[in-house]
Amino acid sequence: MSTPRFATLPEAFQYTAARAPEAVALRTPGDGQTLTWAEYARRVRVLAAGLAGIGVRPGDTVALMMSNRLEFYPLEVAAQHLGATSFSVYNTLPVEQLTHVLGNAGARVVICEPQYVDRLRDSGIELEHIVCVDEPVEGTLSVGDVIDAGAADFDFEAAWRAVRAEDVATLIYTSGTTGSPKGVETTHANILFQVYGIAEVLGIEFGDTITSFMPSAHIADRLTGLYVQEALGTQVTCVPDPKLIAPALADLHPTIWGAVPRVWEKLKAAIEFKVSGEPDEQRRGAMEWALSVARRRSAFTLAGEPVPEDVAAEWARADELVLSGLRAALGLDRVRWAMSGAAPIPPDTLGFFAGLGIPVTEIWGMSELSCICSVSHPRDTRLGTVGRLLPGMQARTAADGELQVRGPLVMKGYRGLAQQTAEAVDAEGWLSTGDIITVDADGYLTIVDRKKELIINAAGKNMSPAVIENTLKSGNPLIGAIATIGEGRPYNTALIALDAEAAESYARQHDLPDAAAATLAADPSIIEAIRTAVAAGNERLARVEQIKRFRIMPVFWEAGGEEITLTMKLKRRVVNEKYASDIEALYTPTLSTDVHEPAATPALATS
User: Fold this and answer.
1) Could you tell me which residue ranges the AMP-dependent synthetase/ligase domain spans (predicted)?
2) Nearest to 544 by CA among 457, 425, 444, 434
3) 252, 274, 450, 465: which has the fewest C-beta neighbours closer than 10 Å?
4) Residue 358's closest CA among 311, 385, 402, 326?
């Protein structure tokens, strides 16, 4: 049965909730909590009345600050039904950033978990109400208090029917790699064009299962975990901690799924570790054989070539004997399609999952485009590209290679920033994306890099640091983040930060007494592993792109910290300034003890 298209999220939700009222809409792993569509709709109704009772009106801004949990959904959707602009705040924001975001948004009400109340108060923003979802903190309201404030004669039907397609449904705050985050105003029309567009390309059915594990302030989780559910009726499993995604997948076996590249890289590393650590020699041999067959198959796929019949036949046998079991153990045996987005993913990682029989498609988009602007179904995917524009979107390329797009996904604007909105979107509606992207004859897009991040070395050669970094990162899961240095320099170097989770696991497996970043950065076995990974990456890069020297940083670069945004984007300017002395040490004639060279790498070009 095809799903009708609606103009607003409340319209879509009301239709969806009535399709199969007793079906489970929301759950937690192991069915610790479940909520049917009928219960979901009832909660939305009473919470909408309660929010109206405490003064929330159409156009008001309601912020939510909580982990991925079942209670989030009825509260968020209730605010939508009042015509309010509801959005999520990253739980890890420091006070000064929280002040900026809440102030820019004009938030009147914040709904949060109790541990965030002090930080909200320290922000200095005058809020009419703070609502606590668990036990109330003195001076705040409980969810029960909100419900009790609802008027018996509240006209719920009239409230949600008054919402308009052009109303701002949510705010998505940009990464803030080069300044303060900007609040992207996203309308109901933007969101629903997005949802129906990806459903047309990928195929999404009522009852499809997916997890919500990324922060709801991240547009990727907000889209796939909330808006797709409201419009199309997916069942969402709420995973409160991203570190628990592996067991959650094994519990759910989702039918559709998506993750950022780092998660895919960690899943790849987990499979490889499972195989290498198999104690039974015969079983380990079978798994190693199956993965080798998968690699041969994916090599043809990566090259865009047809898979030879003999390789296809051997893969079918490997799939029957081993690979299907690996997919099931991972929890991705029922997936019809999966996505990777938010940052470029190493082609080798995509190839690995293609070889394993897991259909992953890479997408491209941005907050200013409601999330996803280009995608192709895995059966049509060309590895290394990010698919084709959603139907109804237009693209053109500026003289300098920057992609510009126009169409229903383009934001209403940046909140309170008319000049910056005008700089981003011209009078004809063309959004300057800031990305250098090539488009082939069939309309497939290939990302080169961010326009402002391209490196021009001392010899005038243009290079993409993202391409270099993704090539190196695929070499070892210990590599968490890389900053390529080379602007105006005779050769490229890199600052490499270890991945905290992988490093801790490595320390445990190798009986290292200390998993601190500084200790591990000096450990000979880790240094050698990174030297090998850099050398392997260099072999896949052009000579001018290769890394000649690197330093392993004595600190982890965590999401939301000084070096990495909450959406896992590198703050290059901050890194260049903060680590200026470390960078200079990479270009001194003699090596210091903490500056390393790749292992057995070919001679590197210096021009």
Assistant:
1) 13-414
2) 457
3) 274
4) 326
Q: How far is CA 154 from CA 37, 46, 50, 53, 478, in A?
A: 22, 9, 9, 9, 56
Among 187, 221, 252, identify where a domain stops: 252
State the pairing for strand pair 107-112/24-27. unpaired
CATH code where residue 502 lies: 3.30.300.30
281-302 and 261-276 helices cross at what angle (nearest 10)? 140
Residue 598 belongs to some domain of the structure: no
Give the DSSP H or E segment for 424. helix 418-424
Residue 604 falls inside a structural domain = no
Extract the runs of DSSP E, i.e. beta strands, from 451-512: 455-456, 462-463, 479-485, 492-498
Dig out the tokens for 431 from the structure. Answer: 């959004």
| pLDDT tens-place string over residues 319-357 | 999 899 999 989 999 999 999 887 777 777 888 888 899
Strands 256-259 vs 455-456: parallel, antiparallel or unpaired = unpaired
The per-residue pLDDT for range 54-97, each reduced to its tens digit, is 999 999 999 999 999 999 999 999 999 999 999 999 888 888 88
Q: Based on the structure, what is the number of domains in the chain?
A: 3
CB 517 within 8 A of CB 524: no
